[in-house]
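Q: Could you fold this chain for me?
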Amino acid sequence: MALRFDISSDRAKVNFKAFLFLLGILLIISGIWYSQNLVSILEKQATEYVKFRIKFLEVSLNNPTSNTDINFLFNEVIQHADYPLIYTDTQNNPRSWRNISPEIDNKPIEKFTKKDSTILFKALERIKKENPPIPIKYQNKVVLGYYYYGYPKVIYRLRIFPYLAVTAAVLFGLLGYLGFSYIKKNEQQSIWVGMAKETAHQLGTPLSSIAGWVELLAISDAHKETAIKEIQNDLARLTKIANRFSKIGSRPELKPVNIRQLIENVVSYYERRLPNMQKKVRIQTSFSAENIVLNVNEELFEWVLENLLKNAIDSVLPSRDGLIGINVQVDNEKNLVIIDVADNGRGIQSQNKRHIFRPGFSTKKRGWGLGLSLARRIIENYHGGKLFLKETKINQGSVFRIILKKRET
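A: Sure. Below is the predicted structure, expressed as structure tokens.
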């Protein structure tokens, strides 16, 4: 038995992931460039605004005939600034400052400690690198001092915001990737465990039957013809099972199949085994047309129906006779064939509805949670149809619906 994989599909996934990665990098770079461009514009505007305010103060100081209150100008124009500001003499010794640190903003220089001086001079060195000082001149000749200035706090925050956003996005993406990888790993583990159990289950019945017939032949030749016939049937069953598993992961060939005949064969297979299951179950079928032909892979489609029937049989309550209905309708207007598999069993809890097709999920004590997942994969990925839970009611039953495109004639 060989499992084959679709290499082109894997390459497409890798290429798509690479595309998403490059797109993410491009978006991050574009976002940083755009935000930093905005910051540059704001810095220029802030610089022009600061220069205007200080030059306005300088003009007022150099105009002795002006009625402007210089103290008012200094207090309102300079002291209320929202950017770091240090006024120094011509020897670069700080004389006044603003928005440097809460520890020293309102503290006279006479009360400065060594720590305070360190804070002030470090701030001066920092804002020296940001902008050239604005000289204050008397009568445009004598330099009285220099104003060193930085930028408003909002600009400093805007500078680092893109990097914080990128860091948060990277961390979020990393956590998402780790979480997704963990979920995917668990899902893959569930798939492999489920596949192993499904294989054992599929092989177990015909192998047990063959072992029984061989043991019977060893005892007596009285049932030789019957035993040989049944062993041949079981070997054919094993071949069919091997073919089913060999098609998982590859693109199976679809051929025109009489869907009515296929369904009746599957129903007949289960009806012969119902007595051994110790279940009182009747299986009824109905078809809206005699000849319904679909393009399907017969072996895989039988597997889907067997899984749906097995689930329906397992859901039958011990206190009630089971009734399973398979209803096939043709919608000529939409060019669809609709197959409903309904039972009168225990139903599905509301909290389990969104999990029933997830690999590894099962509400049965001995379930392996792969049947419905495989069935949906076969219908949707291989046949281009849909498989979903149409309705369910607790202790009243469930209806699973398959929708396939009608074969064009």
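A (continued): Helices lie at 7-61, 70-78, 114-128, 153-219, 224-247, 259-271, 298-314, 371-383.
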